[in-house]
Inverse folding.
């Protein structure tokens, strides 16, 4: 039996929005095994963004346990969390979050810089990743010179270049038209099926969630499966 | 983070806002330039004062005849007759003394044909040009034999020569001083004004004995100039002379000195100290502008951090640690202040050179002032860059990512 990628038990998170305490997560239990493709659905305000932040180690739970690849996240400091995000998690955002005025290649190389990878190896790996996602002829294009679908593929390349064990996709098709959405979703399907990549997809669209093999729904800070 | 990447990122970020970066660096350029130029002006003034003091003989002491109190009446400086040539000879034997020069001084109306000119007449010994470091412009100085035999010869200061002779060469001509006909045997070179604005060239020098006997009818002297081996020896020699003269003049312990002494080395020290205070004053005023330049850096870096909040968030989400972000922004501030420092040095040197050429300021660009200004710029960069960099690195990744 292999170590689960995600093991969450009784995770709570409360935010202070001004003077009001917002209970974003109410005891989340979640187990994701390697190679799974899980979709988490939920309307806005259901707490799915908070869950995504904690899954991605951008934030830590107030209470409860979270281990990522067997590593206890709740005990780590900010720099250690940065290291985990760098090595173990790949992010794909709704609005791509590419660095403007920075070439596709440099964008994909960026996480490798923080991983301390040498210049030559950075170039090789970033180039190979872009090639694989069909952007071999767009290496030196700026994000503003790329279509939405191409930008999101650069973002996927950037997420995968550090060979993470978990790909977190937060509404990856939210800013794309339906044809391009299909392309990106097909790409995720393929990565999951052919390479055994563990994917957690967060979306509010049932047809997007349908690509995953397991669907969960967030409601009022609780997961319902 | 790997250093060359951080450095490249800083350069790239600055390059993207070329105009803004240049204006910000301009603040540092002006600051560093001002510090260097002002320190150069100050050091120039210091040098000028030092050379003036050198000219005056900063290693020298002056002994002057003092006053006596007789029956409650104090007679005023230079009125005693106790200071004599033998005192000068005795002082010359003291350790630390290089040479002594006895002199008397009076004023006289000098006449030459139809013109006349009132001036000072100094009676000096033959080594006057050497002791005073005052070469001749024409003719020659009198010899020790001429001093011993009290010959009727004199050497003119530049001003006297001009006033009496105009463009005519005075050497070989005869002038009349208080009814005494004196042959002019030389002209002193131009020395200019003294540190306190006196025209040093408005004088006639003649053999000591000639002035003593023929013009004043006295056998004592007015002053002894004492050349010491250096500024350090001067204060020791000062005490020695005091003791020696009191002994030679047979003064009782309760009696006042019948002479006065001036230590030019002390004066030189005071003048040099005030000049260096002046330098520091100029330098500190200039460094205020460097400080303002630093605030400019902080301002623009704060703007840059705010503008790039999202970029910071992305970098953090992808694995940048706090210190990576800190260095990225700190290095940017450092590049700004460093580039500003380099161009500021060029600018400051340029201003100093221009001041030297087009104004009467004497400037002296010292390497330490350049190093001081440059390292001050670097410190300003770190100091004012640290706050924005801290601000950037302490952002929360989620909030930074969400920032619009």
């Amino acid at each position: 039996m292999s170590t689960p990628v995600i093991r969450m038990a009784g995770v709570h998170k409360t935010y202070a929005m001004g003077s009001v305490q917002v209970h974003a997560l109410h005891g989340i239990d979640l187990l994701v095994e390697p190679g799974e493709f899980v979709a988490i659905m939920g309307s806005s305000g259901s707490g799915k963004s908070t869950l995504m932040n904690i899954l991605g180690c951008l934030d830590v739970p107030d209470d409860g346990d979270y281990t990522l690849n067997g590593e206890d996240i709740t005990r780590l400091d900010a720099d250690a969390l940065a290291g985990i995000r760098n090595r173990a998690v790949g992010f794909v955002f709704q609005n791509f979050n590419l660095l403007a005025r920075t070439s596709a290649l440099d964008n994909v190389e960026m996480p490798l810089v923080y991983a301390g990878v040498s210049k030559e190896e950075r170039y090789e790996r970033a180039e190979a990743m872009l090639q694989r996602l069909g952007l071999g002829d767009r290496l030196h294009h700026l994000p503003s010179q790329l279509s939405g679908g191409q930008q999101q593929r650069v973002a996927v390349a950037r997420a995968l270049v550090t060979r993470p064990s978990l790909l977190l996709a937060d509404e990856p098709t939210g800013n794309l038209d339906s044809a391009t959405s299909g392309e990106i979703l097909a790409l995720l399907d393929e990565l999951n099926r052919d390479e055994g990549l563990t994917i957690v997809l967060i979306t509010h669209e049932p047809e997007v969630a349908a690509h995953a093999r397991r669907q969960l729904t967030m409601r009022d800070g609780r997961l319902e499966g | 983070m790997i250093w060359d990447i951080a450095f490249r990122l800083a350069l790239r970020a600055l390059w993207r806002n070329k105009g803004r970066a240049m204006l910000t660096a301009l603040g540092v350029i002006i600051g560093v330039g001002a510090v260097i130029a002002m320190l150069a002006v100050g050091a120039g003034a210091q040098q000028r004062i030092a050379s003036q003091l050198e000219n005056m003989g900063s290693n020298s002491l002056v002994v002057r005849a003092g006053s006596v109190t007789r029956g409650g009446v104090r007679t005023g400086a230079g009125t005693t007759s106790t200071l004599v040539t033998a005192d000068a000879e005795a002082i010359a034997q003291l350790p630390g003394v290089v040479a002594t020069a006895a002199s008397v001084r009076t004023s006289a109306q000098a006449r030459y044909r139809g013109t006349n000119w009132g001036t000072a007449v100094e009676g000096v010994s033959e080594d006057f040009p050497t002791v005073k470091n005052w070469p001749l412009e024409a003719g020659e100085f009198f010899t020790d034999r001429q001093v011993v035999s009290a010959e009727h010869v004199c050497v003119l200061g530049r001003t006297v020569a001009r006033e009496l002779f105009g463009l005519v060469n005075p050497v070989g001509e005869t002038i009349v001083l208080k009814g005494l006909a004196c042959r002019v045997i030389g002209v002193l070179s131009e020395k200019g004004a003294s540190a306190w604005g006196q025209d040093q060239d408005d004088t006639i020098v003649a053999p000591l004995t000639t002035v003593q006997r023929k013009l004043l009818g006295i056998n004592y002297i007015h002053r002894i100039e004492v050349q010491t081996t250096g500024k350090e020896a001067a204060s020791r020699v000062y005490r020695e002379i005091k003791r020696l003269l009191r002994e030679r003049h047979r003064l009782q312990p309760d009696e006042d000195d019948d002479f006065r002494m001036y230590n030019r080395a002390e004066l030189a020290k005071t003048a040099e100290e005030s000049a260096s205070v002046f330098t520091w004053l100029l330098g500190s005023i200039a460094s205020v502008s460097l400080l303002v330049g630093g605030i400019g850096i902080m301002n623009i870096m704060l703007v840059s951090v705010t503008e790039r909040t999202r970029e910071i968030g992305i970098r953090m989400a992808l694995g940048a640690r706090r210190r990576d972000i800190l260095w990225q922004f700190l290095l940017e501030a450092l590049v700004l202040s460093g580039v500003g420092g380099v161009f500021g040095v060029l600018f400051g040197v340029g201003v100093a050179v221009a001041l030297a050429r087009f104004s009467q300021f004497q400037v002296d660009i010292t390497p330490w002032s350049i190093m001081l200004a440059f390292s001050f710029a670097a410190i300003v960069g770190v100091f004012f860059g640290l706050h924005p960099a801290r601000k950037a690195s302490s952002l929360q990744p989620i909030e930074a990512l969400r920032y619009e």
Observations:
- The CA atoms of residues 57 and 138 of chain B lie 23 Å apart.
- The mean pLDDT of chain B is 87.
- The first helix of chain B runs from residue 3 to 16.
